Amino acid sequence: MAEPQTTLLILGASGDLTSRLLLPALGQLLTLEPSRRIRLRGAGIDHWDDARWQQVVRDAFASGGFADAFDAIAETTYQRADITDPRDLAKLMADPGDRLALYFAVPPAVAAAACTALADVAIPEGAVLALEKPFGVDEASARQLNATVARLVPEEQIFRVDHFLGRSTTLNLLGVRFANRVFAPVWSAQHIESVVVRYDETLGLEGRAGYYDRAGALVDMIQSHLLQVMAVLAMEPPTTLHERDLRDATAAVLRATRVWGDDAATASRRARYTAGTVGDRELPAYVDEPGVDPTRATETLAELTCEVRNERWGGVPFTLRSGKALAGKDGEVVVTFKPVNHVPEGLTGDAPGSVLRFSLGPDRMDLELNVNGGEDPFELERARLEADLGAGALKAYGEVLSGILDADAALAVRGDAAEESWRIVDPVLAAWRAGEVPLEEYPAGSLGPEEWPKLP
Ligand code: BG6
Q1: Which pLDDT score, from 0 to 100, does residue 376 have?
Q2: What does pTM read for this prediction?
Q3: How many whole angstroms from 221 Cα to the centroid of ligand 1?
Q4: What mean pLDDT do residues 324-353 have?
Q5: Most buried of the four, 175, 177, 322, 329, by CB within 10 Å?
Q6: What is the spatial distance between Cα 29 and Cα 399, in angstroms, rounded to a whole number?
């Protein structure tokens, strides 16, 4: 039987997100899975014609190295539309093919307005809606947006996109954790001392002040991506990786999560970069970047420690950190085990807890252990077992997009999880607004403020 034909309708087709992330991901997906039958419909506020849109698609495919994928698309058309107008939306959704996927590649406020407008439009049976992060701006607005979209289609057809759920390392956590008896039974507070999920970037603002200056590192990275990675790491073993089992398990983690000590001020840190050099690039101070309003006091580096308050994890600090314009690109999940209760007398040297590290691209894992295999057989030293996990065939956005086109929501953020992650960070944002946490500084290209305690 032929694959069903999916109409991918991109709202905000003339925007940056579409050409920078979405289209290259589609190009890769069509290259690796040529049997997919896709019609690509772009819609946006700009007065483009089909030819202009087709050129954008071609260029974006070519930029990812997938130029030939263009020919795999059955039809590529563009319609100028006001996506907050029900009449325009109805026209865009006419002739949906076997399946319709609506991708909102627009700022959150526009997506929310479009969802409100959709209430007056007949949405084709089975249509899926894909919404980019941030989903809302706080818990209350996320709740409201959830209520709006819930009136349109069932929850399994709503894809709150978080590309970190499609990262191969996030998925690697599942196999390592659940398919190995050496890890599964020790994955708890009884044996684990701390967990760090960190995503340090060398990139600065990259011209994204319009969005980033209102978001900041906490909302941009921790509220969404890093809390999701933490939830995968900390969830109870699901019976299957079906969306219901997987998302029940990750949502339960977020529901159990509180900021450390219930004190948002002591559980968090924030800083922003001053002028400096990252690699061979000179970066101006964040406050001097075009479009930045210094009075917003936006942080470019955020750190938050949480506790997953349940039987498995009570007492274990989970520290999430992400920042821009740092010395090196460093994304990793670090699980530090507790030291053993007793080292036999006669063995010399330190025996700190073993450390398991997953690097978030390039995908590697390593396990640091105490061994005594060196010159002196009774002296302990550290050894590292390393494995290259290889990159997943699909990049993170491609993985997420493949779920959207297949209407499989396993890697999408569920509505309750989106609300919970705002519930976790809202008190931190409030403490920062109230000036309870100083906004520190670090030179671009450094490791962050020197006074901050070093993470494992
Ligand atoms: C995005 C953030 O969601 O994720 C960016 O908005 C960030 O600020 C990016 O740079 C990081 O993910 P990746 O996969 O591009 O490294």
Answers
A1: 86
A2: 0.96
A3: 7
A4: 96
A5: 322
A6: 8
